[in-house]
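Example 4.3 (complexes with small molecules)
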Amino acid sequence: MSEETKPKDHFIRDIVEADRAAGKNGGRVATRFPPEPNGYIHIGHVKSLGINFGLAADYGGTCNLRFDDTNPEKEEIEYVSSIKEDIRWLGFDWQDREYYASDYYEKLFGFAEDLIRKGQAYVCDLSAEQVTATRGTLTKPGQASPFRGRSVEENLDLFRRMRAGDFPDGSKSLRAKIDMADPNLLLRDPVMYRIRRVHHYRQGDAWCIYPTYDWAHGQCDSIEGITHSICTLEFEVHRPLYDWFLDRLGIHHPRQIEFARLYLSHTLLSKRKLLALVNEGVVEGWDDPRMPTVAAMRRRGYPPAALRRFAELVGVAKVNSIVELAFLESCVREELNRTAPRAMAVLRPLKVVLTNYPEGQFEELDCVNNPENPAAGARKVPFGRELYIEREDFLEDPPKKFFRLSPGREVRLRYAYFITCTDVVKDPATGEITEIHCTYDPATRGGDAPDHRSPKATLHWVSAAHAVPAEVRLYDTLFTKRDPSELEEGEDWKVNLNPKSLEIVPGALLEPSLREAEPESRFQFERQGYFTADRRLSRPGRPVFNRTVTLRDSWARIVKSGKADA
Ligand code: ATP
Ligand code: MG
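Answer. The structure with adenosine-5'-triphosphate bound is encoded below.
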């Protein structure tokens, strides 16, 4: 991915521009982001946020935040708070336009009475099962409800009594009177209200009838003066109903436009499944760094700018496809490469003693903070006789292509000196290597030799006397399959969970500048990847780091192989 990659123009922008050229809505652009507060928002929602807030910004319009809270069983105030916090963190601003579908219940009730008065809605006494059973099929028309012919007066009276609590749950519904033979099943007298005595997190017990999504959504859009109501592809078949209600009511009529949902490889985005992972303790919570939620990506260390850029670059299409997780990671890497200071951390330490370095002597070496950003400057890192290097950077019996440290071999310590391995010390009982002895070449201070010889490997290190112990958490994908929703006959979706998605490394050692790392601060640990101090677990003095992303750009490899389509 290059810096110059431009956000693609997309068909929704074309529609908005055509509408403005035609003078629709006086050229105004008003969108909304309508989350249901039944879970945390995830990377798919970032795409929707990007489109809705993006269009508003591009055309000097507005984007409302509207909680689509018409389904009281699953909605909670915790989700409202998290959604607001996450959207703000992403950098989208709804200003004072925070709305709730539930705040429009009274207006929606009034609209329903209007439809009844116009003879276009009726109270039906069939049970939910009977309504379904009489709807017909794609090849067979439905049967008219025996209650379809009720008078306007009777319908108004019954509907008001439904609201007043005169009837038991499920015993009646309000249905639109459309066409029981319409080829679109959603137009076969769809239900607008059901009786459900359920506590609403916001309305309490004020209501015992609740509107359906189809009835609520368009009317809420209309009340807010939305011009373009952007939703995902599965609502395409609902559009005739969206239009029918608004046309019959004769109120402001926003235009519904559908786009393809975002799917991400190795990831599931269904809130129902994410909730199951949380409830069953498969993950630590909605913000477990392995989750695809915004809160989790924040904790993992993904910068908000990288998420916004990803949403822009994946584009807007009419056809569903799976975007590679590697592409999201490359957006994260690109942002962090520019912005994250470098540091040294040894994840699995092996002790090194420099036998020709004076005991008790220390010095400070200059280390560049970010080679990509000269303004980031340099820092001093202490160096002494005893150091730690990465255990995997030493092999006693190296194979041909191993160029790191081994007996007799010289390597460079980053920003420090060249060292040569002279001895290997082992635990006599287990045979395990406990430390290695090396000599250093004092003429190579800073990492350059006067004779210009250049070792094949450069290793990172920390001074043993100054090292800060830390816990480091390494992550792999939560699911093993590229498309975890693909299942064999009879398989549960959890079979595709990756048992190795989290590895806790308890004994990592960090350079001392990381001791006071603020929660959420991001670094590149040289040769190990980008790491972020965990916002829940890390404390200055007691750091806990999440690996945000490795340094390996697997996206570049996918692009090279010609398999990229994002
Ligand atoms: P789920 O079906 O998992 O519950 P949802 O689509 O019902 O998710 P909402 O809270 O209703 O979630 O979504 C709010 C907005 O975000 C909607 O406009 C929805 O279309 C959009 N959205 C949700 N998931 C995605 C996705 N994967 N890609 C793009 N937009 C999405
Ligand atoms: Mg929804």
